[in-house]
Specification:
The structure is a single chain. The protein is mainly alpha-helical. The chain has a single domain (about 15-175), classed as Up-down Bundle (Hypothetical Protein Ta1238, Chain: A). About 55% of the residues lie in helices and about 5% in strands. α3 (about 85-100) runs parallel beside α5 (about 145-170). It is an enzyme of class 2 (transferase). InterPro entries: CblAdoTrfase-like, CblAdoTrfase-like_sf, PduO-typ. Keywords: ATP-binding, Cobalamin biosynthesis, Nucleotide-binding, Transferase. It comes from Paenibacillus swuensis.
Length: about 190
């Protein structure tokens, strides 16, 4: 099998059931999800040791689910299709958020992205995930989509925020508060 096909040389690409311009909203949406997946892989590579075994496992599962998100968005005509991203996947992300956040110290102010290398990349994941979500919102304004993908990305960006803090906490690195922030978060109860 050749990696190159030359079918995209004219600026068009294939989606499931058709062809679209390479800068189409649909390609922007699933292409941004693909970009996010690359950063997740980078984060995994920085989470070494037994203390991050669970997080590496969860992030690898997320990488597979990001492929599912892209697949669900790649239909030329999605009506009547069986989708891969489901509501129970969003619920599971919420469970992971609660689990990891329980490890994190309370915050009351905004924090600056950073800390360990892994935490920094997880913050990049958060922002790329938010961009992917915006691309999906734009796509949904013009055509039907699997709405669970949008919900999944929304919850996933929250997870990235939480696990970036967990990556710092597990290594004893404190979050750095934004010094001009008012108190915007409530303490955990």
């Amino acid at each position: 099998m050749n990696i190159y096909t030359r079918t995209g040389d004219g600026g068009m690409t294939s989606v499931i059931g058709g062809r679209v311009a390479k800068d189409d909203r649909q390609v922007e949406a699933y292409g941004t999800i693909d970009e996010l997946n690359c950063f997740v892989g980078q984060a995994i590579s920085l989470l070494d040791g037994e203390r991050f075994h669970d997080l590496r496992e969860h992030l690898t599962e997320i990488q597979n689910e990001l492929f599912d998100c892209g697949s669900d968005l790649a239909f030329a005509r999605p009506e009547g299709k069986e989708f891969k991203v489901r509501a129970d996947m969003v619920t599971r992300l919420e469970e992971w958020i609660d689990r990891y956040d329980a490890e994190n110290p309370d915050i009351t102010r905004f924090i600056l992205p950073g800390g360990t290398g892994a935490a920094s990349v997880l913050h990049v994941c958060r922002t790329v995930c938010r961009r992917a979500e915006r691309r999906v919102v734009t796509l949904a304004a013009g055509q039907p989509i699997n709405e669970e993908v949008r919900k999944y990305l929304n919850r996933l960006s929250d997870l990235f925020f939480v696990v970036a803090r967990t990556a710092n906490a597990r290594t004893g690195v404190a979050d750095i508060e934004y010094i001009r922030s008012a108190e915007v978060f409530r303490k955990k109860s």
